[in-house]
Every structure is written in structure tokens, then in C-alpha cells.
Amino acid sequence: MAFALLDQIRSIFDGDPGVRKVADDPVLSAELLMLFRMILADGSVSESEMVAFRRICKEAFGIAETSIDSVIEYLNEFGYETNGSQAIALFRDLDIERRRQLARHMAEIAKADSQLAESEVRLLRRTLDLLDISPVDVVKPGG
């Protein structure tokens, strides 16, 4: 209890730790932006897509649940500075497994609402092409 209070007080003075983590890591910022673009690809934000996004933030990137809303706000405020091509460019130099992870996360969000819109398919297909990843790598863990 006391530690949680100390964390809250520290975050007031230091800023949110999740936002700091995202702001200090351009690749993580780019990945979250791409995931957010996938959420918006079909023109609506479903609760199931947001649940998937939050779970990915927590499980894959270690962003605390209490920070996720602030991270989303940060992405909304500063994400306009990075377009999709710039975000993808950050991934081209990364190892294949990290690129596959991005593709899997994007596919997971696209499928979260049980409706795969054509716009989501196009975004995922284009991303796979730019990352030089086979669609098989997205559905087959470990590629």
C-alpha cells in the first residue's frame, strides 16, 4: 500500500513511468503506434480491440495497467509526428523475431473484434511486405 502511494507521488513529480518508458524507446513508440493504427483501420474502436491492446501493452512490454491510459494519451498527442512508413522504417533493422512479434500483435488486434475488415487486411498485408515477413510467420509461432 505504501509503495503504491509512493509510486503515485513519484509519478506526479517524474511523470508516468509507462509514458517515460514509451517516450524513451522510439521502437516501442513506433510499435504501439502501429498497433493503434490497426485498431483504427476499420474506422471504429471496439472494446475487444482495446482489451487486446491493453493486454499486449502489459504482457509484451511490461507497461502497468495504471499507465496504459496515459500511454494512449501520449500516443495521441505525439503520434502525429510519426507516420506509418517512419514507424515501419524503425523495424527494418531489427531482428526477424521482433518484426514477427509486431506482425502477430497487429493480427491479434485485427482479429480481436471477430470481424476482419478489408482495411485491416490491407494494413497488415502492407506491413508484412514492408517488414519482409511471410504471412505464415504470423500464424506460426517461432516462424
From TrEMBL:
Source species, domain of life: Bacteria
Pfam family, one: TerB
Organism, as annotated: Mesorhizobium kowhaii
Start and end residues of each Co-chaperone DjlA N-terminal domain: 33-138
Official protein name in the record: Co-chaperone DjlA N-terminal domain-containing protein
InterPro entries: DjlA_N, TerB-like
Coiled-coil intervals, chain numbering: none
